[in-house]
Design a protein that fits this description.
Blueprint (H helix, E strand, L loop, with lengths): L1 H12 L10 H23 L5 H15 L12 H9 L2 H11 L3 H32 L17 H17 L6 H7 L5 H12 L3 H4 L3 H26 L1 H7 L1 H12 L1 H8 L8 H12 L11
Amino acid sequence: MRFLRLLLLLVLLAPAAPAAAYSVLTHQSIIDSTWDKCVLPLLQQRYPGASLQQQNEAKSYAYGGAILQDMGYYPLGAELFTNLTHYVRSGDFVRNLLREAKDRNEYAFALGALAHYASDNVGHPDATNLVLPNLYPERNAQRGPVVTYEQAPLNHSEVEFAFDVMQIANGRYRSHTYHKHIGFRVSKPLLESAFRQTYGLKLGQVFFNVDASIAAFRLAVNHILPAAARAAWYSQRKQMLKASPTLRRRYRAYKTNPAEFKQANGTDFERPGFGARVLAGFINLLPKIGPLRTYS
């Protein structure tokens, strides 16, 4: 219960979701879906001969890089960092990460940041901007079939979080156990070097405490946000199952024979655990204001 109280407090105090096309879990699932065909071959081309353990370690850095540009919006973060890496010389920043990478893990970290950059550039015009007016037709009736982040920032944050929830509901987000096993790492020396080259600033000039910011970032990504997304999936499962025939079939198969379902489909489809269900119950009792509007 102590962890749940902390989790609920951090959800309530968390800032609005960043102005990215996708949120945390979707960015991580992009690394999962491209790992075997794209990311790992690039790593092997430059740094051949990696063992499975070394590959998993590199993947933890790819996860970190995939969410790097959003780090400034998390607790103890610096909004200036995320605004710069999203809107000012964004491509140069990624190019400098790739150029400055000196080993397998740093290169994986840079490739993760490249994946974030690419998915944001595609995700805004081809996903979030188009989905939003269909989800909120009354709020955006005067804005036409395409609604940008600048026109409706809160709605965009809600859509991005909804993408995360659907990743979990459809089994496209690897299990919490898997991500805990792989880990989530940030290459601080590479980040400092590329940021200084791109913007002429030291990280310490932007973040009050760089190490504390990275630690808070890792806590949020590893534990808080996945738990919040699973809580939302549990809270809204009836509406989601009603809206998606595919999800209904998967959920029915999972409920009928979980062991057979896992053997046929893998273990990525997770029923929210006890902690997520308790958190969902707390959230349902609270007024849907501030960050909790996403759960309405």
